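Hi R.,

As promised on Friday, here is the backbone we talked about, encoded as structure tokens. Could you run it through your design pipeline when you get a chance and send me back a sequence?
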């Protein structure tokens, strides 16, 4: 299997927004554990019902569930040359499990301060037909699709505070973990979407030329 890239950062950092650019550049498929969990919730599977309780509360879903999902996803043929992980790993045990089954070639960390996160999350809108991500102020949707946009159930101010707490206590320590392994590339995510995209693209190109 080829090397994989990890897109890392707090909730609302812009991981999903920037993922398409990396997919276009590298040809690696996006593997978002958040999207996989939401699909399981929608399909009303047993795992989806279990995960929903954690997601609605802004808590991390147990590592065993997430690791099982990833192990299964990586057996699919499009993962052979590596993938773009979005929102995974989120704990040190998840990163340790990943290291046993895949090669991570770089971790792109999109850094955004907490005070910018709440406005981003509460104003996010999703297009259920295409999966495209918009923001009521920072990236408004075209008026012809406005009526079909949805808001994620966990995109409330109260839940985002719990998600940020989970991020700081369980996920943020991974930055040092990957930095010690020489894999962390940090990007300033507190700038306009296109500028973040250019910085992300620069980091990916630097990884590809190594
Ligand atoms: P998940 O779906 O992964 O959510 P998240 O990490 O909280 O990340 P988001 O999708 O909220 O943010 P994003 O960084 O993709 O930002 P986006 O590009 O949309 O996880 C949801 C839940 O599932 C978790 O809480 C947990 O319960 C569970 N889960 C998932 N993976 C798990 C795992 N590995 N382990 C355990 N549990 C797991 O941008 C946000 C908004 O900001 C958008 O409106 C966008 O338009 C706007 N925006 C983006 N960039 C900018 C910019 N530069 N300037 C201004 N606005 C911007």
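Update: got your reply. Pasting your designed sequence below so it's all in one thread:
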């Amino acid at each position: 299997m080829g090397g994989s890239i990890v897109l890392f950062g707090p909730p609302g950092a812009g991981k999903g927004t920037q993922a398409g650019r990396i997919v276009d550049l590298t040809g690696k498929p996006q593997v978002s554990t958040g999207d996989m969990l939401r699909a399981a919730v929608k399909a009303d599977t047993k795992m989806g019902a279990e995960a929903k309780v954690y997601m609605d509360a802004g808590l991390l879903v147990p590592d065993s569930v997430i690791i099982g999902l990833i192990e299964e996803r990586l057996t699919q043929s499009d993962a052979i040359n590596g993938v773009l992980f979005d929102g995974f790993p989120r704990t040190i045990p998840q990163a340790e499990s990943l290291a046993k089954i895949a090669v991570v070639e770089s971790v792109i960390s999109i850094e955004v301060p907490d005070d910018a996160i709440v406005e981003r999350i509460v104003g996010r809108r999703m297009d259920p037909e295409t999966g495209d991500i918009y923001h009521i102020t920072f990236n408004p949707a075209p008026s012809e699709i406005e009526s079909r946009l949805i808001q994620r159930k966990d995109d409330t101010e109260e839940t985002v505070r719990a998600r940020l707490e989970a991020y700081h206590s369980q996920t943020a320590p991974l930055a040092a973990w990957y930095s010690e392994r020489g894999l962390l590339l940090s990007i300033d995510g507190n700038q306009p979407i296109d500028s973040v995209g250019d910085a992300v693209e620069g980091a990916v190109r630097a990884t590809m030329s190594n």
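One thing I noticed while checking it: The first helix runs from residue 15 to 26.

Thanks again,
M.
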